[in-house]
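writing this on my phone so excuse typos. first protein, seq and then structure
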Amino acid sequence: MAKKKNNELLLENEVKITDSEINLEESSKSKKQKIKISKETKKSIKVKKQKEKKNIKLTIKELPIKIVKEISKIKWSGWDNLKKKYIIVLLFMIFFAVLFFCIGLGIEALFKLIQAY
């Protein structure tokens, strides 16, 4: 009986192996076929960019140069430029203060006219 059981086990193993071989052959055939993807699908697919390894030593060496370049990009305001901007802001604030004061007086007069106040 032990021999029969061993033979049955061997046969079952052989069947399992052949099944897996069949699956491998089917998957290799499917890999050979080209899959057509629509343009819309291609647009919706997002590909992650692979990050490159950063060289820390090189980054530390280049840091002062990058800082100097960034500082040189800053445009420092002169006194004349600041005066002009300050005057423009003050005039803007005064204009809108007068405008809203007049609107408030108009709304108050309207409420008195319709006797809601």
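second protein below, same order as before
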Amino acid sequence: MAAAMGALIKGKKFDQRYDSAGKVTCSWGKAVPTAAVTIALPSAPPTYKDFPVVEVPELTALGVEAQSGGTEIAVGERSLYNQAFVVIAPQFRLTVDQTSEERRDDDLREAAVALTTWLMS
């Protein structure tokens, strides 16, 4: 199970498992939650190409497309969510993703809208 989870989370394999009360950590030493923002050329291969397109009025007004999705890894009563929000503009592709023990759909969307608005102004 640990090896399968390692492949799901950022493509890194688990060498060891670290457990402590109230905390989930990965073998490469990053505590959860983690967040990342990636800005790429629109021609770069998409990381999350299977995510459904979502309608966000603020982004539609800017003439860009958005995708949102994620995965849930559940072990017993605990869950780990890997979520992403992707904005596809003519000039760039912006990805905001997060791994957390809580779903944060609204936070990811708001961050992506704010960054896209800033980049396009």
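The two ends are 45 Å apart (CA to CA). thats all i got for now
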